[in-house]
UniProtKB/TrEMBL annotation:
This is Ring-cleaving dioxygenase. Pfam families: Glyoxalase (PF00903). InterPro entries: cNMP-bd_dom (IPR000595), Extradiol_RC_dioxygenase (IPR052537), Glyas_Bleomycin-R_OHBP_Dase (IPR029068), Glyas_Fos-R_dOase_dom (IPR004360), VOC_core (IPR037523). The keyword Cytoplasm does not apply. Residues 7-131, 152-269 form the VOC domain. It comes from the Bacteria. It comes from Lysinibacillus capsici. Residues 74-121 form the Cyclic nucleotide-binding domain.
Length: 312
């Protein structure tokens, strides 16, 4: 039986100073900081999660802030562009907001859609697109209200070192549908209302270099733990070298690097981000997994102090 992911679960990137990261994604883009924790493999580094009010799959972008790390290079083997979706009619608000904060941007058109393109403070390429699908994000922050707020991911643009092979993985393994080709891009879609559109650059270019300002991996959705184990076997049976299941506290994860060198993750929708905090208090304090709780005092001395600040 062929499997189909509903769409993107989350995207994880490497950035610089954590306060600059928070000021941009919360203060300017109006996303909610839904979880502040640590990198489970490097607990001296934050792992920050931003999303909609409820932190739903398909809305979450996560960051490893490394203030003193070298600048990366966006290229093949990476997500090149992260696209957010906003309500229909909201793009003029965002044009004005980017101008207010002196963030350079440009307008473009792809597959018949108008997009606004800009970079975050650490060099990540971001786009905004307006679409009707997907419910409004009920989180309000500063001047960003639910009528104009980012709903979640519109999708992502993948840069692959072997685009034809990546296309096969998207359709034959992840179960996405190829729907259109325009210029150097092919579009694939999945069933979810958000996080459901992936554009693949069909011409290989320069290889990427991991560092600040680059995406580390893109994660796809699994319904639950049972579905997740099915995905692990399914990916393995399609010739991909997949990892063991890793408990990430807010979801379980498996990883594989597809032939175009992009790191794919498959993550479970549950348990989500409210199981160790209330929905009202998510993101308000440092949450540690059990194995690091005994080191809380040391970690709190080591980690750079951060806060969510209203910039308007």
């Amino acid at each position: 039986m062929k499997k189909h992911t509903a769409g993107i679960h989350h995207i994880t990137a490497i950035v610089g100073h954590p306060q600059e990261n928070i000021d941009f994604y919360a203060g300017v883009l109006g996303l909610r900081l839904v979880k502040q924790t640590v990198n489970f493999d490097d607990p001296g580094t934050y792992h920050l999660y931003f999303g909609d009010k409820g932190g739903k799959p398909g809305t979450i972008i996560t960051f490893f802030p490394w203030p003193n790390a070298y600048q990366g290079r966006i290229g093949d083997g990476q997500v090149g562009v992260t696209t957010y979706v906003v309500p229909e009619g909201a793009l003029p608000f965002w044009v004005n907001r980017l101008a207010k904060y002196s963030i350079p941007f440009q307008k473009a058109e792809r597959f018949g859609e108008q997009v606004i393109q800009f970079d975050d403070p650490h060099g990540l390429h971001i786009e905004l697109v307006a679409r009707a699908k997907g419910g409004h994000n009920e989180w309000s922050f500063g001047e960003v209200t639910p009528e104009v707020a980012i709903k979640g991911f519109g999708g992502a643009t993948l840069f692959s070192s072997h685009p034809e092979e990546t296309a096969k993985v998207l359709t034959e393994v992840m179960g996405l549908e190829k729907v259109a080709t325009e210029g150097d891009y092919t579009r694939f879609t999945s069933s979810a209302e958000i996080g459901n559109t992936v554009d693949l650059k069909t011409v290989a270019g320069q290889g990427g270099q991991m560092g600040v300002g680059t995406v580390h991996h893109i994660a796809w959705r699994a319904q639950d733990n049972t579905d997740h184990l099915e995905w692990q076997e399914y990916v393995m049976n399609h010739g991909q070298h997949v990892t063991e299941v890793k408990d990430r506290n807010y979801f379980n994860a498996i990883y594989f690097r597809e032939p175009g060198e992009i790191l794919f993750e498959i993550a479970t929708d549950p348990p989500g981000f409210a199981h160790d905090e209330t929905p009202e208090t998510m993101g308000s304090q440092l949450m540690l997994p059990p194995q690091y709780e005994q080191h809380r005092e040391q970690l709190e001395r080591t980690l750079i102090p951060i806060k969510v600040r209203e910039l308007d």
